[in-house]
Sequence to fold (187 residues):
Amino acid sequence: MGKKLVQMMQGNIWISSNPQGLAQGMTLVLKFQIQPSFGRSVYGIGNSSEQPNSNSIFRGLRVLLADDDNINRTVTKKLLERLGCQVSAVSSGFECLTALTHSEASFQIILMDLQMPEMDGFEVAKRIRKFRSRSCPLIVALTASADEHLWEKCLQAGMNGIIRKPVLLQGMADELRRLLKRTNDGV
Fold:
C-alpha cells in the first residue's frame, strides 16, 4: 500500500539489497511542484471520463474527514480540496462526534475511516444516525478492506457510500457525485 501511495504522488520507492541479497536500505523519491502547473492534472482510474474538478457540484461542499492515519488523512484532505471541498479533518471517532456537535458549520458529507482505534467508523456512524436523519449528513466509509460483505455492514450502521483505499481522485469524485445525485433526486 505504501508503494501505491508513493506512486500516486508521482514518486517511486524501492529497497536496495547488499551483495548477500539482504535488505540494506530503502530509497524514496518524491517530486514536488514548486509552482502550480496549469492545464495539467493526474487522475486515478475511474469509471467516468469527465475530469473530477470540472464539475462545480463539489465547490464549497463542507466535508468532515475522520482518519487516524496522518498520511491517509493528509492525502485524502488534499484530494477533497482539489475537488473544491471545504474540509475539516480529525483523527478519531471521538473528535468526529465532537466536531459535529460543536461546529458552527453543518457538514454535508462525513468521510470516515472504518478502522480507527477506540471508536471505529461503524460505531461513529451509528451514533450520528441516532440523532440525525438517514441522508444528512451523508456518511461515506473509507476502507482498505476487501471484505465483500463490508457494504452490508456499512448500510446497517447508517452509511451512504464507500470509498476503497488507496483513495484516488477520480474514484472519490465518482462516488461523491453518485451520492449527491441520489440525494438531490430524493432517492
Q: What stands out?
A: The CA atoms of residues 13 and 28 lie 4 Å apart. Residues 34-54 have pLDDT under 50 and may be disordered. Strands lie at 12-17, 23-29, 62-66, 86-90, 109-113, 138-143, 161-164.
